[in-house]
Design a protein that fits this description.
Two copies of one chain form a homodimer. Chain A is α+β, with helices and mostly antiparallel strands. Chain A has a single domain (8-132), classed as Pnp Oxidase, Chain A (Roll). Helix content of chain A is 22%, strand content 39%. The first copy, chain A, has helices at residues 8-15, 54-62, 93-105; strands at 20-25, 31-36, 39-40, 45-50, 64-70, 78-89, 119-132. A seven-stranded antiparallel sheet of chain A has the order 2-1-5-6-7-4-3. In chain A, strand 1 and strand 2 form a beta hairpin. The longest helix of chain A has 13 residues, at 93-105. Chain A binds chain B through residues 19, 21, 23-25, 29-35, 64-68, 70, 72, 75, 78, 80, 82, 127, and chain B through 19, 21, 23-25, 29-35, 64-68, 70, 72, 75, 78, 80, 82, 127.
Chain lengths: 135, 135
């Protein structure tokens, strides 16, 4: 059965340095998918991106995405979330990508920033959550 | 730049025991995504499934899928393939899932088979291939 809210184990999987495969719809009707860093707050999956990439454009246009997160320590446990954009904001996005660099790279600041980059945070509200447990 | 054919490194990533996130379109227009085992032949990504699962139904209906494969040894290397069904066949599907069990589980035969299961192989021909190299 799918749920519409995140539980504690979902939040653990999203807080650990696992990768999130973001799937969005291209304008031609095919699916774009890419693995990215991921974060979570109490109710939302939190994604941070540079605005000129393909998936945030698709996300803005369609309003929705499907996310899969594999537990890197046991790939037979995974999370699938279909959701919609609850918030898009530039507020705090630079500080947040530094926090993501600490989580994923063990570095104090995000090392890949380029002049002209505009970073945003998308908060994704779940509409369907399914977690597959191993074994 | 995206390619339309697989190269040697793509085939290595698909031959290693990495997981493939299969994204397909649900009838309601949202995206279904799930991580599964994966194989490769010279020109196709090879997927093996029980026919009653959600994604093969979507794949039959739409004819296409997007696949992402992360290198589990270095998640900053990954492969994204948007493709279409070149072949669906039951021929050899039972032997093939045993080969997949050897690859992923180190077991001689697939341990999860249930009475009534109908297994099929889908061969996916790439329309767009993109490999992101680390660093």
């Amino acid at each position: 059965m799918s749920r519409t809210t995140l539980d504690d184990r979902d939040r653990e999987l999203l807080s650990a340095p696992n990768f999130c495969h973001v799937s969005t719809l291209r304008e031609d009707g095919t699916i774009h998918a890419v693995p990215i860093w991921v974060d979570v707050d109490s109710d939302h999956v939190v994604l941070n991106t540079e605005t000129r990439r393909a998936w945030p454009k698709n996300l803005r246009r369609t309003g929705g995405a499907t996310l899969t997160v594999l537990n890197m320590e046991n790939p037979y446990e995974y999370l699938t979330i279909t959701g919609h954009v609850a918030q898009e904001t530039q507020d705090g996005a630079m500080e947040h990508i530094d926090a993501m660099a600490r989580k994923y790279l063990g570095q104090d600041s995000y090392p890949f920033h380029q002049d002209g980059d505009v970073r945003v945070i998308f908060r994704i509200a779940p509409d369907r959550v399914h977690r597959h447990s191993p074994g």
